[in-house]
Amino acid sequence: MFKRLKKTLVATLMTTLLAAQTVPAFADVADQLPDMGTSAGSTLSIGQEMQMGDFYVRQLRGSAPLINDPLLVQYINGLGMRLVSHANSVKTPFHFFLINNDEINAFAFFGGNVVLHSALFRYADNESQLASVMAHEISHVTQRHLARAMEDQKRNAPLTWVGALGSILLAMASPQAGMAALTGTLAGTQQGVISFTQQNEQEADRIGIQVLQRSGFDPQAMPTFLEKLLDQARYSTRPPEILLTHPLPESRLADARNRANQMRPIVVQSSEDFYMAKARTLGMYNSGRNQLSSDLLDAWSKGNIREQHAAQYGRALQAMEAKNWDEARKQLQPLLSAQPDNQWYLDLATDIDLGQNKATDAINRLKNAPGIKQNPVLQLNLANAYVQGGQPAQAATILNRYTFSHPDDGNGWDLLAQTEAALGNRDQELAARAEVMALGGRIDQAISLLSSASAQVKLGSLQQARYDARIDQFRELQKRFLQYQKM
After folding, report:
1. Which of 117, 343, 373, 399 has the greatest count of CB atoms below 10 A from its CB?
2. How is the cofactor bound (predicted)?
């Protein structure tokens, strides 16, 4: 539909504080930690962890080059929740984010938040390999490794931990300054942190491979992907970034391979959605460099039916990105004719229509799409088509419902702000922009915008009461976040 990317780069330093003891490799071991005298509860409750997660997510949105592509967000969250549904010890909601970064990496942090780098799609040969990385990160969360790291640091060097948190936040806003601060803070205890990380990495592998198997993926994908990373490290002057934040000694690979070998062999086919997501990520993102190579598309063209569809979709994407609208439509039309309700194809068809100033065609196609009332991706597409087609009133109807149901999606608020501006509703435009600011951690600016909105409506009106109540909520959020801003 539309690409919405932040501009600065996030430093993935949280995983340097993550950290699994090697246990006998039995495939039916439940993924529960033994009681070893540390529950992390004395340092950080689940409620506090979720509160901190909310704070960090807002910082992430405000400073990292997040890929807010509705199709890709829906795909990685669907895949992630499939894995979470087969995990034990789930104490928080989970949310999955995709960052536009050509360095292969992934990390998890407070409150069930998991971040993937877009480069993972380039390196993952199949869906099971991508899922293995996600299962590993999910296990960091369910086993509360970051909270345990906090407890360990609090016991051994409490001031070091506080400084490290502050440096992580600084790194989000300014990676160079943040890295320097973190290096100085951890200089005296670096070896202990690395050792703790290695233990937790093995535990995340052990728990993650069980989650992977129970979710219906190939458990061999985990050691296969780890081996790919090790091979890269052997033949490169600089190891992949993921190995800097996720230590990978040979023993960790051997342990993962041993566990996978004890599990029942399974043949798993990657979903068509995986291939579509890979084509879209490589063709539209990855730091602005098109990495959807002709070799890959040619290989897919000779593969199974899902790969063949992805190859043709990829060629249509490439043509669209080059603004060769006629060629893009020519490549896409056979796919769309065969599957007129496929959201990947409908989304691309909308982009082509709008690129050719044919908003009416996009609107008519989307209005009649099956299941649009239940499909947030298509709802955003239709709202965008209405905005581009000069029908903001129709867009407002969709977007007011959408933002109510999906208040954490900045795409909806951005479109609503454009819509209200087109309708001349200045107060409602400011209120929508305030929500975007708040989602990106800019609470002061959100309050300022809402104050302006409140001043523009009738004194004592219901609308003014709504704006003032929202200002009070943001001020409470400010107070709650104050402790983290001081770290």
Report:
1. 399
2. Binds 1 zinc ion per subunit.
Q: Which two tokens stand for residue 154?
A: 């609090």
Of residues 49, 69, 137, 255, which has the active-site annotation?
137
246 known ligand binder: no
SS3 letters across the chain = CCCCECCCCCCCCHHHHCCCCCCCCCCCCCCCCCCCCCCCCCCCCHHHHHHHHHHHHHHHHHHCCEECCHHHHHHHHHHHHHHHCCCCCCCCCCEEEEECCCCCCEEEECCCEEEEECHHHHHCCCHHHHHHHHHHHHHHHHCCHHHHHHHHHHHHCHHHHHHHHHHHHHHHHCHHHHHHHHHHHHCCCHHHHHHHHHHHHHHHHHHHHHHHHHCCCCCCHHHHHHHHHHHHHHCCCCCCHHHHHCCCCHHHHHHHHHHHHCCCCCCCCCCHHHHHHHHHHHHHCCCCCCCCCHHHHHHHHCCCHHHHHHHHHHHHHHHHHCCCHHHHHHHHHHHHHHCCCCHHHHHHHHHHHHHCCCHHHHHHHHHCCCCHHHCHHHHHHHHHHHHHCCCHHHHHHHHHHHHHHCCCCHHHHHHHHHHHHHHCCHHHHHHHHHHHHHHCCCHHHHHHHHHHHHHHCCCCCHHHHHHHHHHHHHHHHHHHHHHHHCC
Q: Which residues pair with 177 in a beta bridge?
A: none
User: Phi then psi for 33, rounded to 5 degrees?
Assistant: -80, 140
In order of 93, 163, 264, the CA distances from 53 in angstroms are 11, 18, 37
The CA distance from 198 to 196, in Å, is: 6
Q: Does 309 carry a binding-site annotation? A: no
Instruction: Please determine, for residue 119, whether its predicted confidence score (pLDDT) is greater than 80.
Output: yes
Please identify which of the residues 49, 205, 307, 353 carries the catalytic annotation: 205
The model's confidence at residue 48, banded by pLDDT at 50, 70 and 90, is confident
Structure tokens, 145: 């490794």
Please say if 250 is a catalytic residue. Answer: no
Residues with Cβ < 8 Å from 1, sequence gap 6 or more? 69, 70, 71, 347, 350, 351, 377, 380, 381, 384
205 flagged as catalytic? yes
The model carries a pTM of 0.84
Lowest pLDDT segment from 62-66, 267-271, 302-306: 62-66
Residue the block writes with tokens 């894995």: 83
467-473: long-range pairs with CB below 8 Å, 24+:
467/427, 467/431, 470/431, 470/434, 471/447
